[in-house]
Amino acid sequence: MELNILIAGVGGQGNLFASSILAEYVLKKGYKVFAVETIGAAQRGGSVVSHLRISDAEIYSPLILAGKVDILMGFETIEMLRNFELLAGDGIYLLNDYKEPTVLCNMEMDAYPSDEEIRAALKKSGKKGYIIKATECARKIGGSLLTNVVMVGALCQVSSPFDSQEVKQVLAGKSPARAKEQNLQAFDAGGSLIQEAMRKA
Amino acid sequence: MAEQEYLMGNEAMGRGAIEAGVKVVAGYPGTPASEVLEYVSKYPDVHAEWCINEKVALEICMGASLCNVRSMAVMKHNGTNVALDFMMHLNYTGVRGGLVLISGDDPAGISSQNEEDSRIITRLDAHLPVFDPWCPQEAKDMVKAAFDLSEEMELCFVVRPVARVCHGRSMVSLEEIKKGGESHFEDDRSRFIMSALMEVKDGAALNRPVVRHRWLNQKQAVLAKVMEESPFNHIEDGEGKIGLVACGIGYAFVKEAEKILGKKFPVLKLGTLPLPRNKVLQFAKKMDRLVVYEDSEAVVEGILKQLFYDEGLKVEVVGRSGFLPSEGELSATIAVKSLVELYPELEKKMPATVPLEMKVPIRTRTQCVGCQYRGLLHALKLTARKYKGVVTGDIGCYDAGSFPPLELQSTIYCMGSSIPMASGIAHSGYDRPVFAIIGDSTFFHNGVLGLLNAIHSGVDLVAIVCDNRTTAMTGFQPHPGSEINVRGEPAPAIDVARLATAAGATSARVVNPYDIPQCKEALEKAVKEKGVSVIVATMPCYLVARRTGELGFTPRKVVLDEERCNGCKICVTFFGCPAIHFSEGKATIDYGTCVECGMCVEVCKRGAITWS
Questions:
Q1: What pLDDT score does B333 carry?
Q2: Where in chain B is the domain with CATH 3.40.50.970?
Q3: B574 — contact with chain A (CB < 8 Å)?
């Protein structure tokens, strides 16, 4: 068994927390994990990419090979599109319908792709995936910072070996007391969102 | 089974040092290596210190080593350049207590101004032994081994992890923590006085540097033997006559490529410099060609060519001098592609990738929403434009002012170069005002020397110090201007304005960077002065302040009056706050990201943005 998850977002979206919840869960299940983040300048509104590799055999490269990403989680729209080529033939994407315009887009020196363009390109790729409004949902619960937890909640419905109830326990254990209740709420909301998306699909 | 913990490479190296009984750890923050020192600072028996710069850090470590205790210096590759001067003497004197230098490299320059390979200065220049780990566990093992060997060999050992090892996270075995030694000092002027001094050695009069250089050269033979036995190098048998030489992180990528391609290649795994000569020859003699996978320069490749030339061995050696890309970082994808080139029949095993048929906009870095420097940079841009001045830049968050939309700073090189470069521009006879903008941590690191030099040289310039009380770019580490140390304990803070005044700056004005009119006024006054005028823009970093409640502004909702907005775009194309969007000819406030700093109220000349 090998599962490669790539999380693409922008600085401040909490890639690392999402990755660490998933890592802690699979480590408890006895799998090997090798993960890596691009960190540093990312804090200043740049792109952040987290690679999470899970396997029952030895893992050597911390970076996922191009064409070997099983699950591409996009916390931000163009950050997911930027990494789309890495997705495996049978890989699935999980996109948060949230757009953080770039500086150049704001200046109208660049154009942020429209929903129509994005949906057309995704359709043409032939890849399977789901689009959910995780940030919108997070804001309703308590703030956009909960986006990562909503996305983790959604992931657990579409991929083994994640068991929602068990991952939720890990999340509870890793949450600071003041954030615990909202985190758990966001996690469940993510599960509901994806189930709805799956019903529509 | 030994106890294990899920650690990042930097934490694993910190743990390795703790297990080895390290007592003094000194460094300067820099991605990718910062977390090593942060990790050890959690152990109260260790003296952990963020220093003013890397040279000072290495000197502190050597002081501890003289007293027979174990010490470790932590820095990124650019910092190793700063420490090089001291390193080029420490290599001649050798050490007493184990001394390990961690030099984190950043191939591809993901968080750096260059993608230098610090094996070149530490090994080829300073002739120190270097370990190059492939994963967090090996990085920890190497740090531990380096401490023992350093003491045994009386040499500083270098561990050179690349960013992917520093930031990689995996399970790491924990072992027993060794108790550190007690400090005791004994003089040995024959070693620790590095100066031009004649002495009689082996019956001949020799200058001290020659004597110690000979000592270092003689150590190499002993080192070679140690590396021959090292667990960090090994040979793996495989099919074919093309041998893969997998150095450091290159091993991770070669092994991954084997998995993908379903073929076992002959592999020579290398983790040490000097190389295990006999092991290398034993492997190479069976091969027609060697491909060297290493980040990021052709260091081992060059050493192998030299060795084979000396041995008269006819084996082709290729790698990053041309067969593999000569720039950027190595990856498993590159390893797979290179092997498919050598074994075309494996092409069907290569994972297929399908490019998305659309153009994805690039994302450039900018100041955070709420960053006080956006106000200061705005005021500086207005002033610099008015006087057609030049602004030189430096390393830190405020460097984003050089990218669109601000495009303010004209230069960025290395830590502290802004003020000397501004001086040079002024001394060249340039007849417009010259401004240098530098961060607080960078100012202390090296910038202060440029300031003192500028004052003494009699140049006219304006130096702006962005003082946010922390090293924000690398994750909020304290510096000599901070009121706390790495453990958060109170520490004496050095006041930049008082320091500049004492040094003889014409003026040293302290401004609030959120207050654009105040910044403009200070700049207007400074630009008309002779000599070096210093402006210190003081306010805690917004990202810290929002947690501690020390905000430099009173948050209040701003509103945009669509009627008044004439679509001039100054707020997005000149000021550039990411919380202001522009669509259909009008600006809009994105309340999801706006933090209510209100600087845009001052920026909008139409009065379209107002406090609610």
A1: 96
A2: 4-229, 373-548
A3: no
- Which part of chain B has CATH 3.30.70.20? 558-611
Tell which B residues from 502 to 521 touch A, by Cβ distance under 8 Å: none
Residue range B373-548, CATH number? 3.40.50.970
Q: Does B364 touch chain A (CB under 8 A)?
A: yes
Q: Decide if A40 and B331 are in contact by the 8 Å CB cutoff.
A: no
**B4-229, which class in CATH?**
alpha beta
Residues forming beta bridges with residue B201, ordered by sequence position: B204
With a cut of 70, say whether residue A43 has pLDDT above it: no
Identity (one letter) of the amino acid at A76?
Answer: E
Residue in chain B closest to A127 (alpha carbons) equals B354
The pLDDT score that the predictor gives to residue B20 is 98
- B53-105 pLDDT, tens digit per residue, is 999 999 999 999 999 999 999 999 999 999 999 999 999 999 999 999 999 99
Question: d(Cα B339, Cα B350) in Å, to the nearest integer?
Answer: 10
Q: Which residues are registered as beta bridge partners of B7?
A: B170
Rg over alpha carbons for chain B, rounded to the nearest Å, is 27
| Protein fold of B558-611 | Alpha-Beta Plaits (3.30.70)
Percentage of residues in chain B having pLDDT higher than 90: 95
Model pLDDT for residues B187-199, shown as the tens digit of each residue: 999 999 999 999 9
User: B234-349 has which fold?
Assistant: Rossmann fold (3.40.50)
Question: What CA–CA distance (Å, rounded) separates B408 from B106?
Answer: 27
- Nearest chain A residue (CA) to B33: A40
Other beta carbons within 10 angstroms of residue A119's beta carbon come to 12
Which chain B residue's Cα is nearest to A68? B351
Superfamily assignment of A2-200 in CATH? Pyruvate-ferredoxin oxidoreductase, PFOR, domain III (3.40.920.10)
> From the candidates B356, B397, B546, B600, which should be mutated to test the interface with A, based on the most A CB atoms within 10 A?
B356
A128-132 and B234-236 beta bridge pairing: unpaired
What are B299's two structure tokens? 């260091």
Residues of chain B with CATH 3.40.50.920: 234-349
| Residues 375-394, chain B, touching A (beta carbon < 8 A) | none
Per-residue pLDDT tens for B524-580? 999 999 999 999 999 999 999 999 999 999 999 999 999 999 999 999 999 999 999
pLDDT band at B320 (very low <50, low <70, confident <90, very high): very high
- Hey, where are the domains in chain A? 2-200
The HSE-up count of residue A144 (CA atoms within 13 Å, CB side) is: 19
